[in-house]
Structures are given as C-alpha cells and as structure tokens.
Amino acid sequence: MRSLKWVGSSLKDLTQFPCEVQQEMGYALYVAQMGGMYIHTKPFKGCGAGVYEIVSDHNKNTYRSVYVVNIGHTVYVLHAFQKKSKVGIKTPQEEVNIIKDRLKRLKASLSKN
What we know:
Blueprint: E1 3-6, H1 10-14, H2 19-33, E2 41-43, E3 51-58, E4 61-71, E5 74-83, H3 93-112
Parallel strand pairs: 1-5
Antiparallel strand pairs: 2-3, 3-4, 4-5
C-alpha cells in the first residue's frame, strides 16, 4: 500500500467539503493507495502522466481533488477545490495554476532530498 501525503492546503480544503464528498474522495484516495483507480477518477490533462482528478457531485455542486501517483511510492494530493465555473466543464485556469505550481514545487523539493 502506498503512503498518502498532502501538499499545500489540500487537506484543509478537503475538510471543508460536505461529509459525503469527503467520504467519497477518501475512498477514492484509498483505492489509489492500493494501486487502483476509483470509478469517478480520470487523468488530469496538462500536467503529464500519473496525475489524476477525482470528481464528486453533491447538491448541484462539483468538488475535485487532484493527486499524483508516479513519484516514488506515495500518493501526493496536490489540490482539493469546489469547481465554481459557470460555463462548461473545463477546470478554471486559477485552479490549474495552483496544481501546476504545487507539482513543480513537490518535484523540486523531492529532487533536493
């Protein structure tokens, strides 16, 4: 089983989600730790291989968590957020920027060690 680590404010952000969403995302991350992929998980485009997005819909709101699995033997949760875009299904650019920045910092931090 892979270990699980939280990057930035991802854990704090996830704890602000409704309980049902927290439970679903927690289970999806457990599946990732076990080497699988939960049914509501898909590759996150634009950040390379090994980056995935969990999508959870609850009370007409959409919540997402993004994690990476191809760095060592750990699942790193990069970001958790509520999608607030009113147009289309595309992830808002500010959220993409946070994900890319955290991934870049994570890789830099791990390469120093």
